[in-house]
Structure formats: C-alpha cells, structure tokens
Specification:
- The chain has 401 residues and is an all-alpha fold.
- It has a single domain (6-188, 209-395), classed as Growth Hormone, Chain: A, CATH 1.20.1250.20.
- Helices cover 76% and strands 0% of the residues.
- It is built from 16 helices and no strands.
- Helix 4 runs antiparallel to helix 8.
- The chain is globular.
- Keywords: Cell membrane, Membrane, Transmembrane, Transmembrane helix, Transport.
- One of its GO terms (molecular function) is transmembrane transporter activity.
- It is a multi-pass membrane protein.
- The chain crosses the membrane at residues 12-36, 48-69, 81-106, 168-188, 215-237, 249-273, 285-316, 373-393.
C-alpha cells in the first residue's frame, strides 16, 4: 500500500465514501411512499404526488446549489467539499428520520440536497489526478462504490424498516455519513494549490477552454436524461410491487430487492465497460448502452410478476454501467483541471434535475394512467438521449472518440 501513488490511495478511500453515501441515501427510498402513508390517510393520487415531491425535493435543491459548491471547489480544493457534504448529510438525514408530518419530511429532504455532493466531489478529485490512460477503468471502479452502496442499501433498509419501522434507516444513514466524514478526513490527501493566475479565469465560463464543447453539453444532457429514466420508477416502485404481489408478503423487503437489482449488474459490468471504453473509445460504449437501455425498458410495460420485473431491472443495471461512468470519462478527457469541479458540478446539477423530472413525470403518468405507462415514458426519454448523443458526435469529434 505504501508503494501506491497517492491518487490510487484516494480512489480506495473515496470508493468507501461513495459506498457509504450510496448505501445510506438508498436505504429509505424504496419505501418512502409507505413512510408517507403512515403520516395520514391519503388517496392514491395524493400519496403518489407526495412521494414524487418528497423524492424530488432533495434533487431540486441539489441542482440549484451544486454549481456554487463546484465553483468553491475549484478555488479551495475538493477535500473541504467532501467534508462539507459528509457532515451536512449526517445532520440532515438524522433530522429526516425525526420528521412528524409530510411537510417536515419534504423540508428536511430539501435541506439534505443543499448539503449533498459527496459522490460528485469524489469524481472531481479523482478526475483531476488520474492518468488519461486509466480514466475509464478508474471512473468505472469509483462508480461501483456508489452503486454497490445503492445495491445493499435498499435491502438492508427494507429489512430494518420491516422489523423496526421506517424511521430507523434514516438514523442509520446519518451514522454512516459520519463514518464517511471520518474516513475522508483521515485518508484522502489532496495536493491542491490555488492558482493566483487563474483568479480572473474563475470569472470566465467553465467552458471557456474546452475544445469539444458540444460533446461536454451532450454528456451533461445525457446525464440528465439517464438519471430521469433510471429514477422515474423510484416513487412508484413499492406501490407497483404491492400491486404485482396483490398486497401479500413483505412488500418493503421485495421493493428493496427490486430497487437494488440493477446495482448487482452495474457492479459487475462498470469497470469492464470502462476498460472497454479505454480501448475502443467511450463513444461506442455509450451509444450501444443507450440502444440496449431502450430495449430493456420497453418490455417492463408488459410485466405481470415481480420476477419478470426483477429480471428486466437487472438488465437495466448493465445499461447503467455503460452510461454514467462513460459520460464521466468523456468529461474527464475533455476538461482542463482548473475547470473540472465546475463541469462536474454542472453535471451533478443535470443529474439532480433528472432526478426531479423523472419521478415527477412518473408520478403524473402513474396518477393519470397506470404504473405501467411509466416504462413507456422512460423508453421515450432514452431514445431522445440517443438522438442527442449521436447528433453531438456527428457534428464534433472529441479526442476521446
């Protein structure tokens, strides 16, 4: 371990931090609607709406605040931002568990979003240090941390919620983020030197020195649409599972498993697809991933059992592995170091907006039509994404293609 370069040691420490953040954040999400339903007697449309708003509130505030944190990170370094995010989420997650009504819950989740950003800053720190030849594989590996956490989080959260109630996973999230803060403080070392010559440049657009601007914008839009498609099922998953199971059995646990299944596939596939991108170019991996993604979402419209839903959700995980880490790699290869935190923060804002748009659209579609039509909506989002990426690559060829 002593012979390893510092950037590699940082990858290990931040992988753990990403894992903890992913696990904590996803512990309560699959049964958020069930938690809300305990706070009052709501008709189906109102419950679906509150679930969508409670889910989206975190990401809406995250979308607004992220660029400000990104600008600060380019001036102060990424480690202070990692500490700020970890400690901020320690407090807000704990308070969310103590919420006594739906509006307090929504308020706490909004605050949580304003202080979040651990995973995004982990990406930015590593992106500023990793050699170009290893960026695909490294970004893929870092992604497995967050995804691995998102994989175990819903299962543990569902099990704990079934035994002790829906508040306990929120308290566990707070405790886990405290561990992430301690780990980051002790083991992440960043050689960050603020550049006085760049003081003026910080007022410039983050895109000022980027040659492949179309590609960067396509990646940011792509992140938004990928996240919207992936997250759209979150507010309705426990309600759809409940319907498929005809209201019998441990719905919280099964919802947790169904929510976690894509994580297993992403965990296995992300580093391999990242490495493949290093060899054949991320463009090809991204386009293939989007086509595969559309082919997987469409059949979900027809599912009649939780097993069929689970199998298709597993396949979604493979497409996820070809999408988000690859967009991060393309941005890493095409962004100068002095702007990397800002570009990654714009990307996080885009993902956060996707996390708002997807669930709110899904809540509307599910409320007006049926849960199944959400999957038709996600298929359309993926096809729009494919068109944007192919158009951008057609008009401008970056060095990473």
């Amino acid at each position: 371990m002593h012979d390893l370069p510092q950037w590699r040691k940082n990858v290990y420490a931040l992988w753990l931090g990403n894992f903890i953040t992913g696990a904590g954040a996803s512990m309560s999400l699959p049964f958020l609607p069930l938690f809300i339903s305990e706070m009052g007697h709501f008709p189906k449309w109102e419950l679906t709406l509150y679930a969508g708003v409670a889910y989206a509130a975190t990401f809406l505030s995250q979308a607004i605040v992220s660029p400000l944190w990104g600008k600060l990170a380019d001036r102060t370094g990424r480690k202070p931002m990692l500490m700020r995010a970890a400690l901020g989420m320690t407090v807000t997650a704990t308070l969310t568990g103590a919420a006594t009504n739906v509006w307090l819950l929504i308020g706490m989740r909004t605050l949580q979003g304003a202080f979040s950003g651990y995973i995004n800053n982990a990406y930015a720190l590593i992106a500023s240090e990793v050699p170009d030849t290893e960026s695909g594989k490294t970004m893929g590996t870092l992604t497995t941390g967050a995804v691995g956490g998102q994989l175990v989080g819903p299962v543990i959260g569902g099990y704990i919620a079934g035994l002790f109630g829906y508040r306990i996973p929120f308290y566990m999230f707070g405790g886990l983020m405290l561990i992430a803060a301690i780990t980051t403080y002790l083991f992440v070392k960043e050689n960050f030197t603020p550049q006085p010559k760049q003081a003026q440049a910080s007022h410039e657009s983050a895109f000022a020195h980027i040659k492949a601007v179309r590609i960067i914008w396509a990646m940011i839009l792509s992140s938004l649409l990928i996240q919207a498609a992936t997250a759209s099922i979150n507010p309705i998953i426990s309600l759809f599972v409940k319907e498929l199971m005809h209201n019998h059995g441990n719905i919280a646990l099964v919802s947790g498993v169904i929510a976690a299944l894509p994580g297993i596939a992403t965990l296995i596939a992300a580093p391999r697809l990242g490495q493949l991108g290093d060899h054949i170019g991320p463009q090809r991996v991204l386009i293939a991933g989007l086509i595969f993604c559309a082919c997987v979402f469409l059949p979900m419209f027809f599912v009649t059992t939780v097993f069929a839903l689970g199998a298709l959700r597993f396949l979604v995980g493979i497409s996820d592995a070809a999408l988000l880490p690859v967009t991060q790699t393309v941005m890493t290869l095409n962004t100068p170091n002095e702007a990397i935190s800002r570009i990654f923060s714009y990307n996080q804002s885009a993902q956060a907006i996707g996390n708002v748009i997807g669930p709110l659209l899904a809540s509307g579609v599910a409320g007006l039509l049926d849960y199944r039509y959400v999957f038709l909506m996600t298929t359309i989002l993926v096809l729009i994404n494919l068109a944007i990426v192919m158009t951008a690559y057609h008009k401008q060829t970056p060095k990473s293609a």
